[in-house]
Design goal:
alpha/beta, 7-stranded mixed beta sheet, globular
Length: 301
């Protein structure tokens, strides 16, 4: 059975709190798992969430601040300890290669699994599989940072009323899907395009073109909202977003389900992030993230 969900392992900005671990997010996409921004403590959070090293196929790091990457050492060593039987690919800013190398080889261990290093140096497509295309776009932060976007290929939705009207039934339904025509009836006559699902992951950044491109048309968007609106100047000074800014991005981009995360330790009332996001005009489904929460990708329209 296919599962598409975001497993939230940690939601704290800069430093963990008593209730929030450093960042960590696992996207389950059918049979694959993509781990985003494993901060310190991610390996233990994976255990608490029921996520195994065998679930990981890719690791995507937005940038090399500690709250987004210090967990790499433990996660990579766990992948090797558990002898994960399939390849694991790591994407991260190429400018931070020295940090990746230090984290990958932070201590002595036996390498049993080949980690494929696929550093990012510009906007574009990182990988294409039958299930999705993974692309990246540069963000705006004091250190080089990239967001990620996963897009499922468009498919076809068969329309029963049109099939019946054209007399297409039984084995001919499969045949027209494979061959494109049956007895002069085309696939376009009896079906419509089913848009592929879209997910984006946007962490530390100020407002920029990359944010807009990544968010456009997403079914599920996980985005930082480090500050509340009254602290917008702090957000500008440190290259972050407020709850209202993130919500306006999502509303303008037509996002269906917005997940706010990466909260400063200065705030103890998460409900205020939701209130400000709604006040900014976001009308879709909204989740203020907390550790170990599972957020399903919305069903197709």
């Amino acid at each position: 059975m296919s599962v598409r969900e975001l497993v939230i392992l940690g939601t704290a900005s800069q430093v963990p709190t008593r209730h929030r671990n450093h960042n960590g997010y696992l996207l389950r996409w059918d049979g694959e798992g993509i781990l985003f921004d494993p901060g310190e403590g991610t390996q233990r959070q994976m255990l608490r969430a029921g996520v195994a090293a065998h679930d990981l196929n890719r690791i995507c790091v937005t940038h090399f601040h500690g709250d987004h990457s210090l967990g790499l050492a433990g996660v990579i060593q766990r992948i090797n300890l558990d002898r994960v039987p399939h390849p694991v690919t790591a994407h991260y800013p190429k400018s931070g290669q020295r940090f990746f190398d230090r984290l990958r080889y932070a201590t002595a261990y036996r390498e049993t699994v080949g980690i494929t290093e696929s550093p990012v140096s510009e906007d574009g497509v990182l990988a294409t599989t039958p299930a999705y295309t993974l692309e990246t776009h540069k963000l705006s932060h004091p250190v080089e940072s990239y967001g990620y976007r996963l897009t499922e290929p468009d498919g076809r939705r068969m329309l029963p009323d049109r099939l019946a009207a054209h007399g297409i039934k039984g084995p001919d339904v499969g045949r027209i899907q494979r061959e494109g025509t049956v007895d002069g009836v085309s696939l376009d006559d009896v079906s419509e395009v089913r848009r592929g699902q879209r997910f984006a992951f946007i962490m530390d950044t100020g407002l920029c073109a990359g944010v807009q491109v990544l968010a456009e048309g997403c079914d599920l968007l996980a985005i930082e909202s480090t500050f509340l609106d009254e602290d917008e100047q702090l957000a500008v000074d440190h290259g972050h977003l407020t709850a209202g800014q993130a919500a306006r991005v999502a509303q303008e981009a037509g996002v269906r389900h917005l997940v706010l995360t990466h909260f400063s330790q200065r705030y103890s009332e998460p409900e205020e992030f939701e209130r400000q996001a709604r006040a900014a005009g976001f009308e879709g489904e909204l989740t203020v993230a907390h550790d170990l929460l599972r957020v399903p990708v919305p069903k197709r329209r």
